Amino acid sequence: MQTLVSGLPARYIGRFAPSPTGPLHAGSLVAALASWLDARAHGGQWLVRIEDIDTPRCVPGTDTLILQQLAACGLHPDAPPLYQSQRGSHYQAALDPLIAAHLAYPCACTRQDIERALAERGQARPRHGELVYPGTCRHGLQGRPARAWRFLTETIKPNRPPALATWAQAAPDSVADQLVHWQDRRLGAQQQDVAQVVGDFVLRRADGLWAYQLAVVVDDAAQGITDIVRGEDLADNTARQIMLQRALGLPLPRYLHTPLVLGANGEKLSKQNGASALDLTQPLQALDEAGQVLGLPAGLSARTPADWLQQAVALWGRATKIER
Q1: Residue 93 within a domain
Q2: Most CB contacts within 10 A, which of 62, 82, 94, 203?
Q3: Angle at the Cα of 159 (from 4 to 98), degrees rounded to 5?
Q4: Residue 84: is its pLDDT beyond 70?
């Protein structure tokens, strides 16, 4: 991990934001542990947010199980969890000004419509299983009913209300000529042309559910999150979230994306590819294995999770110092 110089306020607030679609597995423990260690090493708060906006995929009771798994490993949040499923009015309050500023527009396209439009342009190749939206509905629905709302990527400019200017200007990112730049504390300098690589992305889905990108940006700001520590598989979302943060005039956090746990097939371990739930009959072993993924030494001399975590915090703090 590299040192990051930042002018963000001295108060550190981090978070772990699992989706209750299944119990935690080895990969999600790595992300939870990294975010907890980073918060504790820098004298900050650690929050848990339950990202349950995709309600058809959520499994009842899994939120409670996840909190129990975290507690078994000694990872206790500093406040009650925030549930995204209860925050629809806040997401609407963020979407409304984007619509008024012509930064969001209704879209009538189905997936088949998008595939057909891309094929006509010779651009039918999917991106990580997604399709780059070609902007079909930017200039109107052509008499078709609206299905979703999208963010207009090609016109976004930095938007810094005076009250937020200090945070925004100090944050390690910029938007120039549609290319979003940011500094990741582990991965280093990053950039993405969202308009070219992703296209105008969804803010509210055709089924009426809120999209991840809008919800996470609104909630990070509402919770005062200064540092986002999460798995490297989510790094691709960062540029879209920075664009939304700027459009809404929100503070811009620091980012640290952690190594992934890979399955036997070499792909990221996840609930989708059958990752097994954490076996927490031996929480010390689970913590030790997660710590090794994060670069901590194996076999720390500890008899309890609390002992292990105390040593891990000191090691993490020396390796990831943040200058203020």
Answers
A1: yes
A2: 203
A3: 120
A4: yes
Distance CA 52, CA 207 (A): 15
Give the H/E segment covering residue 94: helix 88-100
Range of the domain at 178: 4-108+146-323
Residue (of 94, 10, 21) closest to 60 by Cα position = 21
Contact 52, 21 (CB under 8 A): no
Categorize the per-residue pLDDT at 323 as very low, low, confident or very high, splitting at 50, 70 and 90: low
pTM, to two decimals: 0.87
Number of other CB atoms surrounding residue 270 within 10 Å: 18
Number of domains in the chain: 1
Residues 177-229 have pLDDT tens digits of: 568 999 999 999 999 999 999 999 999 999 999 999 999 999 999 999 999 99
Domain at 69, CATH number: 3.40.50.620
Any domain includes 127: no
Identify whether 244 is part of a domain: yes
Q: Are strands 227-231 and 254-258 parallel, antiparallel or unpaired?
A: parallel
pLDDT for 277 equals: 85
Residue 126 pLDDT: 59
Exposure string of 211-223, with b = 16+ CB inside 10 Å and e = fewer, is bbbbbbbbbbbeb
Look up residue 224 and give its two tokens: 């005062």
